[in-house]
């Protein structure tokens, strides 16, 4: 990846952040990024990884189900 980054710098006379090569993994997406004006070379913000309210609710339900299953399993072993 470092070699590609160095080649971009040499060929295009630009210094995009190395992280952009990971954010644009295909030739098409990297070409689109590199065709943008040079002043936009600040790294793009990473998308939020915060779970949505729906996902949070789903996870809580799943934890509850697993807890009940564990309790049932423990009860069956003690019987």
**Beta-strand share of residues:** under 5%
The number of helical segments is: 4
Order of helices and strands: HHHH
Mean pLDDT equals 84
Our Rg estimate from Cα atoms comes to 24 Å
Query: Which stretches are poorly predicted, pLDDT < 50 over at least 5 residues?
Result: none
The amount of helix comes to 55-70%
Structural class: mainly alpha
How many distinct beta strands?
A: 0
Q: What count of domains describes the coordinates?
A: 2
Terminal residue distance: 60 Å
Shape, per Cα inertia axes: elongated
- Largest sheet, described in full? none
Structure notes:
It comes from Streptomonospora salina. InterPro entries: ACP-like_sf. This is Carrier domain-containing protein. The chain has two domains: 39 residues; 29 residues. Helix content is 63%, strand content 0%. It has four helices and no strands. The termini are far apart. With 79 residues, the chain is mainly α.
Tags for this model:
79 residues; 2 domains; ACP-like_sf; mainly alpha; Carrier domain-containing protein
Concise summary:
The chain is mainly α and 79 residues long.
Helix-strand layout with pairing:
Elements: H1 2-12, H2 19-23, H3 27-34, H4 53-78
């Amino acid at each position: 990846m470092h070699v590609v980054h160095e080649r971009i710098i040499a060929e295009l006379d630009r210094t995009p952040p190395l992280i952009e090569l990971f954010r644009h993994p295909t030739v098409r997406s990297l070409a689109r990024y590199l065709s943008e004006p040079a002043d936009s070379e600040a790294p793009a913000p990473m998308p939020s990884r915060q779970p949505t309210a729906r996902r949070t609710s789903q996870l809580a339900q799943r934890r509850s189900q697993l807890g009940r299953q564990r309790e049932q399993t423990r009860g069956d072993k003690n019987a």
